[in-house]
């Protein structure tokens, strides 16, 4: 169709021309009959054949009263005919006529007098079958009632998309009188809706004739400017019986309740999805900061544009024993912040920041009362009470923050802090459903955060105890240089019982010890401390390594079912000999100068605490420049690799350019231990030097 070619039927009312058959007159089959002054039929239209049953040849020249009227009605017909002819008054009404087959039919007549240019008088009768007319009238009346009384909105638009008809239901939906619609386009009536899409759909239906059924539209009309409604709209083309396009009709059904119910169901599904997501993602570790970050991440973007987790500093320090109801300020630490997109608002909340919030701040009120705080529509004054300072309030305003929600983090009847939520791009204010969801998330996360802080406290205590039991920097040693490293397990696991020791002995000898108490926590650390103390005591007796292990075995058997692995070695710088015994520990690595590193071939021995198993001392040379590398199993053992493969990896890591001893410890840790490994690591490296020289850096 060309750019300027009209749509079907467009502009027809403004153009002269023939009309195709099938119009209303054709539907009614209106007949025309003309009588002269004597009542003879002088004109007979083709439609009269159908109405009366006679052809023109049969009717012309006949007296109408004799041909078309039963005898009992002829006097009345003659009287009515004379009245029309004499007075010129028209007559209209239904009259029974005699059909050609002798039957009686009721015909609707319109009779009037005609005058030709010669002054002669005629009678014109326009007739239509009364049953056909009644059927059409009934259809028109029914159509009008259906449209006017229909509970759904109905409109008819012409081919230029101007309203021709609007029923009362659509008048109420649009909030504009029906008369004000006529002659105007949808864009003039419905500025709050997506009228471009609506008019495009109407034109498509006009062009193709294919209806569009149950199109979903959401928006507002002048009938209710403050609330969204939803409508199901259908469009269909209207044509005459001959196929001429009159325009396009649309029906409108208000489905707002269904829309709201579907929206509520969708929101409920999304809330359940968020809760399910939180169940899987929050509390995956026993780290306070990570748990807080997991909570913040779950909240965006489904619940909020910006989320923050603020925990009372006194809670983290275990100084708070009862809920505070004092009007004073509170000090919070922002453990986590998450945003759905880059925003200026995050400059006012930085993870790790420590900030004091005065008593008039909403977050302070939240932790004091232990109740959620909701500001559905936050203005500039509200932001002053939400942010910690004026700069923060300005950042929130610049970011477009318009709604705020804070819920307390409560675990075991103790308020830990607050879960803060902000909306900026999301246009909806926080409502009661959002409060319920935030409370549910906060309750789940608060328990995880509380567990994490208690675990972290216990772990810190155990780690502090363990580090206090490990040796400090050793004194200068004859013929040896020493480097050591201790790395506790990650925060999800408690510290273990790994230890090492460097013990100066008489005659310039040095005892080198590395061990691992099975288990973790404070008990394992305390057991490690007892074994280390005992090892130092037995070392002073100048016993052979196997004898020291035998005494330690007896002590370990009495330590509440604990067992431990241990390597005990004594180095004599005078003859560069090292004597060593093993109690179930991984073999040390001998990295001799100029040769590839290798594992020492030692009798494995049983772990300490097994009891009754003999230990054996092995002697070997440790010449100047040679290194002896002790380590605990946390350096090499993993859940996914055989131990032999990992020991080979250890040898390969050491078989490279030599680094300083301290750097070598860090290199081993970095190369072999994954950050998420669940075990402690202790490393001790001893390098032989010339016996009479002072220790020096390698």
Helix-strand blueprint:
Blueprint: H1 24-28, E1 31-35, E2 41-44, H2 46-52, H3 56-59, H4 64-68, H5 74-87, E3 91-98, E4 104-115, E5 121-129, H6 130-149, E6 153-158, E7 163-166, H7 168-174, H8 178-181, H9 186-189, H10 195-208, E8 212-221, E9 224-239, E10 245-254, H11 256-281, H12 288-299, E11 306-312, H13 313-316, E12 330-339, E13 354-357, H14 362-369, E14 373-375, H15 380-386, H16 390-399, E15 403-411, E16 414-423, H17 432-469, E17 480-487, E18 496-504, E19 510-520, H18 522-539, H19 545-557, E20 564-572, E21 577-583, E22 589-591, E23 598-599, E24 617-621, E25 627-631, H20 643-654, H21 661-672, E26 681-688
Antiparallel strand pairs: 1-2, 1-5, 3-4, 4-5, 6-7, 6-10, 8-9, 9-10, 11-12, 11-16, 12-13, 14-15, 15-16, 17-26, 18-19, 19-20, 20-21, 21-24, 22-23, 22-25, 25-26
Beta strand count: 26
Which spans of ≥5 residues are poorly predicted at pLDDT below 50?
A: 1-17, 693-698
Structural class: alpha+beta
| Proportion of residues in β-strands | 25-35%
Arithmetic mean pLDDT: 85
Shape: rod-shaped
Tell me the strand order in the biggest sheet. 13-12-11-16-15-14
Q: Report the span from N to C terminus.
A: 91 Å
Features:
alpha+beta, six-stranded antiparallel beta sheet, five-stranded antiparallel beta sheet, 698 residues, 35% helix, disordered N terminus, disordered C terminus, rod-shaped, single chain, 21 helices
Overview of the molecule:
35% of the residues lie in helices and 28% in strands. By secondary structure, it is of the alpha+beta class. It has a six-stranded antiparallel sheet, sandwiched between helices.
